[in-house]
Amino acid sequence: MNELAILTKAMIQERKDIAIAIIGGFIAGIAGVCLFATSGYLISQTVFAPPLYTLIVLTSLVKILGLLRAASRYAERLYSHQATFSLLSNLRTSFFAKLVPLTPGILGQKRSGELLARIVGDVESLQHYFLRVAYPPVIVVMVFLATVLFTSAFSFWMACLFVLGMLITAFVVPGLVLLGQRKIHGRVRRQRAVLSTEVTELLYGFRDLKVYGQLNKREQKLHHASAALADEQQAAARHLLRGQSLHAFATHLISWGVLVLGAYLIMGGSLAGVYLAMLIMASLTVFEEAAPMATLPAYKQDSEHAAKRLAETVHAADLLPPQPSGVLFVNQGISIELSGVSFQYKDEGRPALRDISLPIPAGSKTAIVGPSGSGKTTIIELLLKLRTPTDGQILLNGASVKELDEASIWQASNVVLQHSHFFRGTIRENLLLNEECHSDEELLAMLDKAQLPNVSLDDTVYEKGENLSEGEKQRLALARAMLRKGRLWLLDEPTSSLDYVTEQRVFQNLLTQAEDDTLLLISHRLTGLEEMDRILVMDQGRVIEAGTYSELMEQKGYFYELKQIELQMIGEA
Which of 7, 183, 332, 547 is the most buried (most CB within 10 A)? Predict the structure, then answer.
């Protein structure tokens, strides 16, 4: 598929502003040619001492053409840039809308810095497509054709010279620029992505790099990436400058050609001498309109490369099935059933889940335990439709998740993941992420349930919660989840950073609020699981044991061994 098809479609949506910009550009170009041609004719006429009214008419015409050129050029700039900004806005919205369904899978394939470069840099580069690629040829053709028709009224050979000049400036010069452009195709864009990646990773890992003494090494790597980008940008700028210089040389060469040819025609009596200055001035002006053609190949390849990278990023979105219409209602109890579910991450050698089949009745409390990497978190991601099972199916209230709108699943779920994100702002703003309205009294009561009684709603939260301890982050995430009205609780290690006493208090408040709801808890700790209706023990992507706490302890299997190890560690501590 043509990478620029999305741009063409977006341009069609802005056809009104684009049409006005083209009309304004054409009028400005023709007015400029007429303005300088009239000025040349006026200069020639003054030699012959024409009547005063002739000078008044010509002078007035020059003033009118000057005003017309300025007004039309302003309209052209206004509407062309308005169309460009609208195009960029639509492209950003469209790109982000296609990117959202691909997360979190795309984050495992692309580095966050590179994604940032594509979202910002590549979309920004597409602003040149209309202004520097699609728009100039239209104006050049229209203005040149009108000028050639005007010139042919005075001399056929002069019109042929103008056509030759148009071919040189519109095709030969851009062709020469294109030959050199192939050598540096995409290097600036790739190097910018490398720099964005290095900056992002330096900011995210600053603390660890500082602790392990690797900050200077990473900074040097960042400086090298910055210097490499600067070198590539300078090379690209020099190439554009060579194209512009070549165009200027061709323009002046053609103007000299007009002068020589005009002198020859005047000597032969086929052209009146009074028109020579007019034709020279017209040639100087009309070829200025073709100046953007010299840099068109560079901007065209840059836009194509940016569009290709964006298309590669969201190509999978085009392969997604239509958005399902099924709805999971918030006020209903939710049952879960996994039937033969398997899942394997891309490029992984082994499956994360292997043929998982288990029913979870509505209103039940289920815990999933097991060693790290056994597939516990993957189950929650499948339930939230963040990932799609490789095999098998998942049912929520008897409906396949494939038939349910993911937004309704998220709305009906109270979720606490291992790493919850916090935005820069206040405690209040980070609690009120949903659309529901809550009073300060309700927020404080929920903080109290989450064992954060001494926190003020106006306390500042840094980006990613950098000023909060891990325990505070988990309790704030729990308070945020407890403010929601969903009937499905999906909790992934929600209290792993809390001390035993605080953990038990939070857990009791949580069970009280979720008394009639379906709760699925992932935990490495085995303390407090006595109150669970069912415990699933996983290892290497399989459920190897299932039952109540007492049943599993009586079996003296894998769960029993894990419990003995935990008790031994607590005793040693």
Answer: 7
Nearest-CA neighbor of 502 among 569, 443, 450? 450
Of the candidates 136, 101, 126, which has an alpha carbon nearest to the alpha carbon of residue 10?
A: 126
State the span(s) of the chain assigned CATH 1.20.1560.10: 5-317
What is the side-by-side order of every strand in the sheet holding 488-492? 413-416, 488-492, 518-522, 365-369, 534-539, 542-547
Rounded Cα distance, 546 and 65, in Å? 88
Tell me the CA distances in angstroms from 345 to 152, 322, 391, one per residue in order: 69, 23, 12
The residues near 25 (Cβ < 8 Å, ≥ 6 apart) are 72, 73, 76, 80, 135, 138, 139
Give the architecture-level CATH label for domain 336-572: 3-Layer(aba) Sandwich (3.40)
pTM of the predicted protein model: 0.64
pLDDT, residue 1, reads 43
pLDDT digits (tens, 9 = 90+) for 63-78: 998 899 999 999 988 9
Cβ–Cβ < 8 Å for 145, 264: no
Buried b (16+ CB within 10 A) or exposed e, 194-227: bbbbbbbbbeeeeeebeeeeebeebeeebeebee
Q: Which two tokens stand for residue 334?
A: 């939710």
What letters, b where the CB count within 10 A reaches 16 and e where it falls short, cover 448-475?
ebbbbeebeeeeebeeebeebeebbbbb
Across 467-551, the runs of DSSP E, i.e. the strands, are 488-492, 518-522, 534-539, 542-547
For 222-246, how does the pLDDT look when each residue is reduced to its tens digit (9 = 90+)? 889 888 888 887 887 787 787 778 8
Question: Where does CATH 3.40.50.300 sit in the chain?
Answer: 336-572
User: Average pLDDT of 283-311?
Assistant: 75
The one-letter code for the residue type at 357 is S
Please tell me the least confidently modeled range out of 11-20, 104-113, 380-389, 487-496.
104-113
Topology (CATH) of 5-317 = ABC transporter transmembrane region fold (1.20.1560)
